[in-house]
Write a structure and sequence with these properties.
By secondary structure, this protein is α+β, with helices and mostly antiparallel strands. It has three helices and seven strands, in the order αααβββββββ. The strands form two sheets. Strands 1, 2, 3, 4 and 5 form a five-stranded antiparallel sheet that branches. The radius of gyration is 18 Å and the shape is globular.
């Protein structure tokens, strides 16, 4: 019985691991329109999500670049990558130190937020 359950688990796990899209698939995907107002989109997102939005200090926002993300479960997001260096207060009211967050924007909406810009161990926004 143990071998059967283990085999079933392995088969289920392996079928859940989809391969990454190839170049032809990437060319067909919809990345949305270039976010002209990306700075406003990012600031509005932080205003809605930060515990102390009036105390946040945005040091730098990169220009959007066409980008896609996928995870090991087969989910994928296509849009424009924007990296932000920000310092803000935590829930206790103390500044937490600068961090680099990453966003995927599609059609002027944040579709994916990556806290500290780390995606499955890979830094999306540099060191």
């Amino acid at each position: 019985m143990y071998k059967f359950v283990f085999s079933l688990f392995i088969v289920t796990f392996l079928t859940a691991c989809n391969s990454l899209p190839d170049d032809s698939q990437l060319a067909k995907e919809d990345y949305g329109t270039f976010p002209q107002d990306y700075e406003l989109i990012i600031k509005a997102w932080y205003n809605k999500t930060e515990s102390h939005p009036t105390s946040m200090f945005i040091n730098y926002i990169t220009k959007p670049k066409r980008y896609w993300l996928a995870n090991k479960l087969g989910d994928a997001w296509y849009g424009y990558l924007v990296c932000v260096t920000i310092d803000s207060k935590n829930r206790l009211g103390a500044y937490s130190g600068f961090r680099r967050d990453a966003f995927i924007i599609k059609n002027d909406h944040v579709i994916k937020y990556i806290e500290d810009g780390s995606w499955w161990g890979e830094k999306l926004c540099g060191g």
